[in-house]
Amino acid sequence: MVEFEVPDVDYTRYSNRQLVAVPLAVLALALLIIAGYFVITGKPVALGLAFTGGTELRIGTTDSPQEIRTTFDADVESINPVGSAENEYIVTFQPTDGDIGQQARDAGYEVISNQERSASFGADSQRQAVIGVAVAFLGMSVLVFLLFRTFVPSIAVVASAFSDIVIPVALMNVFGIELSLGTVAALLMLIGYSVDSDLLLNNHILRRRGDFYESTYRAMRTGVTMTLTSISAMTAMTIVATFFGIELLSSIGLILVFGLVADLMNTYLLNVSLLRYYKYEAISA
User: Fold this and answer.
1) What are the structural domains, with CATH classification, of the chain?
2) Going edge to edge, which strands form the sheet with 110-117?
3) Count of alpha carbons within 13 Å of 128, Cβ hemisphere only?
4) What does the pLDDT look like over 54-95, one tens digit per residue?
5) CA 240, 34, 43 angle in degrees (round to 5)?
6) pTM for this prediction
7) CA-wise closest residue to 141 among 74, 195, 180
């Protein structure tokens, strides 16, 4: 059995400014990427079929993507090969009045699946997804403030959770991952992961006896092991889903890997620095 040993980090070698510099720089870069994407496209992240409406067609054919594109009257938005499946493609279209499925059959393509959503339905889904994420984040923030009743420890948890969502969203733009109902669920899961690891750290430092650094290391032994285990599981899921062409699961797994790696950084750099400031400077001031 392989045993993972969490290293004992000597936080006394670094000032609070040094600890907080890296997560804040990464967060600033992520916000810059999202802002740049918004300026170019008018949206903070690429929206999937569930939020824009349109048609998603999975077909079997020996034609090349270029030949597939010229087959349809409607504008083809994207053509993606299906993982391990040979000669299968997922073709997406913006909302159109034409019968896309029939056009594919007339061209001799095998129509494996055909999903259609209206633009109005997509707009409703988009609105509900935004409300869902906002309510989840707001509820988390209120709960954290009720638990700790002090500003700095509470804002440390909220800031870490915010960064854990923003960084994966920015990387979604970089890697071309669209926002779908599945990826929204992944972002909601990241809020839970983030709060879990941050509350573990805060409870060890603020509510248990012992030196600050001793308490931090105790929390790290549990939190880092837990997060690395989750990262390993999500990485394995992403690899398997990519091999078998399950695009939704591979996107969810990749987003969770991005968010969990960001959570390690935010929890044990950003959060630790804010808690150390609170315990040694804010209280004694």
Assistant:
1) 11-47+121-282 (1.20.1640.10), 54-117 (3.30.70.100)
2) 76-81, 88-93, 54-60, 110-117
3) 11
4) 888 888 988 888 888 888 887 788 887 876 667 888 888 877
5) 95
6) 0.83
7) 195
